[in-house]
Fold these 2 entries.
Entry 1:
Amino acid sequence: MPMKFRISSEYGVLEEIRGGREHHGVDLAMPRGTELHSIMSGTVERVVDHGADNIGRGVILRTDTGDLHVYGHMDSVAVHAGQRVDPGDLLGISGNTGHSSGPHLHFGLIQDGSFADPTALVPDLQRYSGDIAGPSILGIKGPAGWVADKVVDHAAEHVVHGAREHIVHWLVEAGAVLVDLSYGIGLLSCTVLIILGALGMRDAYRWSGLVFGIYSLIRLLGVGFGR
Ligand SMILES: [Zn+2]
């Protein structure tokens, strides 16, 4: 199964968009408006707003184990400094604020004053976050709304920046969405055909083999989009 939120940029990679500096966290591609929940109990250390720079609007949480969790590029923040939070408590809504080329969550981990690799916490982030707050930009629900939001978001960015990297980024995002959708459709068709086969429809097994073959091929090609 594809992951709920694709890691769009891993920890430690050197990227042009950051002026060749190391990436101090992981980026999870997610539609704007996704609810972000704390994955541990702790106290809100700071709420930041860097405007169009850095992580934009963000929350820095001191966990009860003494680490810092950094959430960046948020549209809105639902907590204030000094507030106690438990696992699952709402911290805010994801967005595309700060220095960002598309809607995503930047998540950072600071241990003993230095950045550490937060990749091991990604499954917790996927588990606790993910409810989409409110209707999508165009009021369309479900995957179609997600695709529509991406088109609107990225079209708006092209007008502002007109940069080639955004168009490439959009194509990669759109490809990833199509691949994700095809996974679901492929698996569903296979299941239906296998059930039909079990019910006695003689050709169903053969068709399910064909569909599974196509599905596997798309999946294999889709690894390129998954990065
Ligand atoms: Zn990041």
Entry 2:
Amino acid sequence: MTSLLERPVFDALEHYSRMSSEELTEIIREHKKRLGNRLLILGHFYQKPEVFDLADVTGDSYGLSKAAAEAEECETILFCGVHFMAESARILAREDQVVLHPDLRAGCPMADMANLDTVTQAWEELSEVTDINRVVPVTYMNSDADLKAFCGERGGIVCTSSNAAKVYDWCYERGDRILFFPDEHLGRNTGNQRGIPSERMPVWDWKEYRGGLSENQIRDAKVLLWKGFCHVHTHFTVEQIRRVRENEPEAVILVHPECPEEVVALADGCGSTDYMRKQVLAAAPGTTVYLGTEMNHALNLQNRRPDLTVKYLSRSLCPNMWKIGLNDMAYTLDMEGRVNRVELPEEIIRPGRLALERMLEVA
Ligand code: SF4
């Protein structure tokens, strides 16, 4: 009989997909026990409960980046989240540390709405109209590593939903306007938070020449909002909030800043997934909380606080986060770094780290 290592990948994966959750959990726990501090499993808040419960550190993309940057003792990081998060861990980790992602196909459709070609094109078109040295590029964490490097090389920065408002302040100390990609809604909600009028936050339609904007619109802009969105968060509507208000007027509604601004305006609070976690953990027993974000965050928080009722505003699942399963984790750990390694070239790592370190400083 051939060993798992000698079998074709699909054959090996099938072997794990036939195992029960208990068997797979046992394999993963064995690796954790054997490796101790040498293995660090990071789990995003949107991971399904059985994966989430096996993580050593759970958090939002900001918290997990920080954990990766500070993980001095470990030799291997297994990142349970989507691909751009694992890439960021690769950028921030030491060179000798191995970063693994249980399913390299788990990407992010919103991150795919901006790429190096379209952003470079936008940068060139902006430079025809305005002093490009006064434009600060900001990429949301949810973007490919080469866009983080793009920002690092041009005096720009990465932001997360935890620190976006402070990142705006950081940018205006260094320039007059921001090119914000790839999420239009986070960009606009952050601008609203900082009191920027809507007419000074035009949308940059990357399929159009100069974003479909006039020279005056570009010169007058404080933020140019990339036309991109997360389908998980644009799923939430004003109507859903009204229904909760009618049926459960006492309930608290918290939404994520990737939601449209009209949804944010009606919620009781808006913030990152870590903000939601803190609000839920601090809630008085018996409180009902609705979350306008990926549904697994509500399920995981309900498990943490069984004395509350934590619900999702509407069923909205991120299919890419969902791809990470116990079978992928067990397979990846059993292969001991031979599969699912996250690798990036040095010319991306160096400037990408610069942009991410700026992000970590703007806490
Ligand atoms: S929830 Fe939205 S932004 Fe996050 S990984 Fe899924 S598609 Fe991307």
